[in-house]
Predict the structure.
Amino acid sequence: MKTDIKLLENGKRLDGRKYDELRPIKIEAGVLHRAEGSCYLEWGGNKVLAAVYGPREAVPRHTQNPLRAIVNARYNMAAFSVDDRKRPGPDRRSREISKVISEALENVIILENFPRASIDVNIEVIDAEAGTRCAGLTAAAVALVDAGIPMRDIPVSCAAGKIDGQVVIDLGKNEDNYGQADLPVAISPRTGEILLMQMDGHLTMDEFNQALDLAIKGCHIISDLQKKAIMEKYQKITEVK
Ligand code: CDP
């Protein structure tokens, strides 16, 4: 991370946000007809689609677990989602993000209900502006609910970080590129259990605690938006009938 760009002006961030203010978020459940469950999410300049298939027989068969389902989250960034065209297909970064999202989801889905099955979660980032793993996981959670997959809770994700020596919530693109630290977190909002935590850059113990508190605060705000999106979908269905 470079640190030579000024990211705070009179205590305000470059996009005018306060230290604890999220970028605007819009969530819509059930946007794809082919998938069992789906979600479209806009978060600042991020645009993400999530589609859930399954539970269905896991293939190849050697991947099956006789006692529980496996979760296959596949995070992909479209070639046109970033300024410099991204080379299509999986890379080290997308494999890492797919793995941490799969593991986060495995901790809330009631996997024992579906032995030998796989639950496939496709996450497509079509526009990227920092924080796409948080956006992807948050969208995937709504798509899983839309698919009727039993879960102990609806997981949710948000990041916090440090720019110009100040701990802030939800880094934007320049803040991510030129800031000092980024701490993406995912939680189960009901229990407070941490499902994902990664850190890029450096934070003191105090700053880390502040950043974690901010990220969790963000998670709770976004959790309400997830529930609203799910309720709106069922409201629409009731109206059509
Ligand atoms: O997106 P997230 O913050 O979860 O992951 P990151 O690896 O910290 O990437 C931060 C941002 O860098 C992404 O959201 C994209 O906007 C950008 N990026 C890019 O421009 N080209 C890439 N090949 C990968 C990321």
